[in-house]
Predict the structure.
Amino acid sequence: MTRESTRSVEVSGLKREFKSKSGPVVALDGVSLDVGEGEIFGVLGPNGAGKTTMIRILSTLLLPTGGAAKVMGFDVEHEPEKVRRVINMASGAEKAGYDFISAKRNLWFFSQLYGMPSALAEKRITELSETLGLTKYLDRKFYALSTGYRQRATIARAFINDPKVVFLDEPTIGLDVMTARSIRDFLRSEASKNGRTIMLATHNMAEVEAICDRVAIIDKGKIIAAGTPEELKRRLGAPALVMEVSPPPKDLEMLRLVAGVKGFTSSADDERELSTIQVVVESDAASKGALDAMTASGHKVVASWRKEATLEEVFVALVGSGFKEREEEVGS
Amino acid sequence: MKARALVRLWSIFGEPLWIVVSIGFPVLSSLALSLLYYSIGAGNYIGFAVLGGVMVAFWGNVLWSMASQFNWDKQEGLFEIYLTSPASITAILVGMSVGGIVGTVPTAVIVTAIGWVLFHPAVAASWGAVAITFALTLASLYALGMTLSSLYLVYGREAESMNEVLQEPVSMVSGLYFPSVGSLSPFPFALQIVVSLIPLTLGMDALRQSLFSSPGFVSLWVDLGALAVMAVAFLAIAAFSLKALEMKGRRDGTISVRIR
Amino acid sequence: MISFRSLFASAWMGIQHDLAWTSPPAALVLRTVAPFASAMTVSIIYWFGVTHSGLTFDPARLAFILVGSTLYAHVASYAWVPTIAIAEGKNLSVFPHIYLTARSTALYVAGRALSSFAISSTTSLAALAVAYYVLSGFLQTTIILTITPASLLMLAVALFANIPAALGLGYFLGAYSLYASKFEWSLPGYVAGLLMVFSGALFSTSILPWGVSTVASYLPFTLFIQASRDALIYGNLGDYLTSLGLCILGGVGLLLVSLWVYLAAERRARRDGVLDRRLA
Ligand SMILES: Nc1ncnc2c1ncn2[C@@H]1O[C@H](COP(=O)(O)OP(=O)(O)OP(=O)(O)O)[C@@H](O)[C@H]1O
Ligand SMILES: [Mg+2]
């Protein structure tokens, strides 16, 4: 892909360290990525991976401690005013707004801070709230809105100034399926308007598969994979081998030794006394190797089949398989 | 209950800076009013301003840390936890009071020390009576605080604003800085009777009598008796209305209503 | 004009936010109660102290105290608004978004302070008027205040002239709450208390010891209260203009320094990532 002239976000070697009582915490550890104009770019990663930190840096709320980033060609560290003129951001977890002021007046307030003429602001508020299904609730005080509508108002606010780049941190967190879907539709349609770029951090795989053009998976402050969802699945995950094994193995060390096995997850079914093991493999040879290794270790493979990996599986395989492992890391 | 008191104390003493911050108004306002007495040539009454500074610390603590505390807790979602815990809310409030009193003592000591060093106010005290009076005044004041918290429970952010509205007028009519009841009071007799319903008023009257031997509204013993009655009465009202409001809250679903 | 719009919208939001918890007229009335009560307290202290110490009651002195007490409360009530606007903004998560819309949140803070100035000018003057009538009736004296169109105009000019100084104080306090987000709720007590002692509100700054009295007498707030007294009590135009001029001069100086401090604190806050940190 040649996005040379049309990159809206360019990140290179971005680092951020926080000081904390128990020593420095590295939230971002040399992240590099590019986002093209008009793209919806997803950022996936486990809790504490550094997603929010990256969004805060790109939206000029936080300075990096190393590396550089540009948004629409402006350096976030040295030209924050220019960046702010072309961006906006929102966090689904926060739902910013003045409690005792109506949703409409909250939106109007922000439009004024962006210096929009009132007539234009009114028009924009009407449009946004229509597409977001907020119209009926515009005159309610912010605190009296339900979580979902507060979130719609928050998202409307993030588009109020017609930004070229919008950063969203978990925009659909805590929403019912239908509302989340309508917000996704909204994002999709907004991104297709005059080359608007949307960068969103999320935990929702369906969201990524549904609307993201490209994705980066970050873990412990580093990008561990990037590409289109299809690419990720193909390159890292497909095909997957699923096998039902009896009795449930105590550990899966033997799979680690098989060449071409990229990762695995397992779930035990105590009633049927078997384990379902998913193995992400590089090739058919690796599948065969995995089956052989399992049999060789004295387990019976009751059934096995091939399956296209979902993004979730790719994610789990890349990032780690369970709490235990992560807790140990956190503890260390 | 003990736990609540301890929590309050931890949060105060675990953060030494907190003391520096909370002494601001009591120290400075009592300093300003002492200087006012001094500047008009009534230096013999400076003790009233110092005593006022001490008591305003407790009164402020009652309003801001007791009365509106439940409202804060409610917003933080803590209140639901209290409710579902087996301890009675009244007990929790009593715990908070004890914690609040102990936590305010350093402020009171600093106000007294500064007033003493700068002005040497004349004191003619019977210390035993002062101790009893002080204890009873605080008891009735914090019992009032409990009643207020139970009332504020039904309100949300209004509680904050009500505090702001209440703080100054109550300070004035209860005579924190000058005698608002008795022969020295500028108020008409009827008003003196009305303001005596605020425990702080008779408490201040009794404190002035026992500390400065200044002429009181009623005799010290009547003051003390009335304070004891009020302490019990406010405690009863608080317990009763907490129960009632808890029931109401559960029925109307307002207990877990948070603004965000 | 991006800045004028921002300022206006912020002031509008300030008024809404300050008065929205009940109906606006009721909120205004309730906001008059506190300054009225504290004006009554200090006036009664004067009356009580004088009458029970065998001194003569001086209505001009009472006027001095009455004017001073309502005006220091006025300054205190809008000088700490920046602090609260920031703390509240962080709590409601709006603050970072305000930061992202403009070059600096200083404009928003100014708007909030100005709206509070408008509210508090109304309520303090109402408190002064009510206290004046109540005390006149109560103590059966004539408190010596000159109320003419000219004196009121002079008072109004003084109120406006004090804005730079109060805003300056506001930015200092705001710089603190941008950064530390814990104790700002007790700052108003400090501000009110300091003004009570050092701005000549209740007694002449000359009774303060050592160099303190000199410094206090040149504080813009002291000069503001003095100018207001020149307008309402003494009626000396020359003194009034001197106090007013010095008040503006000192105020503008204070404003420039504190704005610089605020902007530096804002940059530091971005570096340390506290702009969007909510209270614990
Ligand atoms: N102000 C701070 N001080 C210290 N550490 C911080 C600070 N902010 C973030 N961190 C740390 O930086 C790391 C990355 O945090 P970040 O919020 O970016 O993660 P995230 O990917 O958004 O996680 P989540 O999915 O839970 O939202 C975490 O280890 C976090 O504890
Ligand atoms: Mg996050």
Notes: Residues A 51-52, 169 surround magnesium ion (ligand 2) (CB under 6 Å). Chain C touches chain B through 46 residues (CB under 8 Å). Chain C has twelve helices and no strands. Residues 2-271 of chain C form one domain.
